[in-house]
Amino acid sequence: MLSIVAVATAWSGYQAARWDAASTIQYAKATNATVRSQVNATLAGQDRLYDIVTFNGWVAARMAGNNKLAEFYERRFRPEYATAFTAWQKLDPFNNPSAPAGPIFMAEYTNAHAEESTRLSEQAKAFFDGGITRRETGDHYVKVTVFLATVLLLTALSQRFEMLGARVAVLTVAFLLLLISGFWLLKLPHA
């Protein structure tokens, strides 16, 4: 019984270490994806600011009747913004009070950096959740290791009892803990 417990304890400790390492890798991936998401979120904010500034310049030029300057601003629109701008102009916004206030309020307005930021943020969450799951599995293996260490303690302790009944009782408890630990070892996923 002692040899079985020793091997099972070593296996459980090994699995706990493997799952801990796997959770660390998932957390590192989550951090990496979060940083990349934040970079894209910053770029998306800069794109939006650029879009607003160039649009405001376009509006000022158009209102001043400076078509050459208005065309200059139009040529400076980002391609994603230009698509929304074209759709917005089709609504005749200067004569249509129900038209959105500007192209950024149009469904056609997209921002690749914002979309990538959202995708990476979701990916970071998935990696983080994976890290939690792997850490919890490692924690279960640590619990099994403690149970198996208790089996070793009880087995050694049973040798101290001179009464056969006490020895059998302690060994029975140790054996039950061994069975429970064995069941958990078979049930838990392996790294």
What is the element string, with H for helices and E for strands?
HHHHH
Rounded Rg? 33 Å
Count of strand segments: 0
Beta-strand percentage?
Answer: under 5%
Largest sheet entry: none
Q: Termini, distance in Å?
A: 25 Å
Summed up, the domain count is 1
Helix content: over 70%
Average per-residue pLDDT, rounded, comes to 95
**SS summary, helix count:** 5
Morphology call: rod-shaped
- Helix/strand-derived class? mainly alpha
Any low-confidence stretches, pLDDT <50, length ≥5? none
Describe the structure.
The protein is mainly alpha-helical and 191 residues long. The protein has one domain. Helices cover 81% and strands 0% of the residues. The chain is built from five helices and no strands. Helix 1 runs antiparallel to helix 2, helix 1 runs antiparallel to helix 4 and helix 4 packs antiparallel against helix 5. It is rod-shaped and about 105 Å long. It starts with a helix and ends with a helix.
